[in-house]
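As a warm-up, study this chain.
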Amino acid sequence: MWIVPSASVDASRWSSGQARRGTISPVRQTARPAAVRAASLQPRRPDRYVRRFAWALGPATAVVAVATGAATAVADAAGWAEPHWWGAGGWLAGALAVFVAVRLIQQAVLRRPQPLAAPDLIEADDAIRSRALHVLAGGGAALALFLVLNQLGAVHPVDPHASDLIGLVRALGVFVVATLGWLVATSIWPPPGAAGRTDIPPTTATS
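Now compare it with the structure written out below.
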């Protein structure tokens, strides 16, 4: 009967463990390269993604709201109307707030970084960006103009005929404004296709 010293057993176990660690450690130490994030530095202008009419619709609604408020003040000073100023001022402030909020969101969509990717992905990104800008333009303009119609309701003209005229304008305006917002939001404005663009630097795929 042979008795193996404990020191020899420990040395054998240590050698075996080192051998296993030597074959496994290279696998554990192999790390994937860190992903590199990059974005296109090309400027993104509104006319590349949205119709000029749609982009100018927001400022136009703000001008209409301010003009309605100014006309209300003139009518009050001339004695032609007895406006409810709390209502008129509140609707005016609401219309201007809608314009500012929508324009800020549009700017955020427009300036969102565009990644360096394949041409079809760039084209899809352009299409999504264009649709978002049109929906914001149509929906924001419609909401602001609805508030302008409420401004007209706070004028309260002295002349009954003028009051009837304002009532007719408000009734028809609901349908006109809704139609305008829908047409702008769903309008087709295809962005420039990535396949024929020269402003996109070539990208290479790495395994």
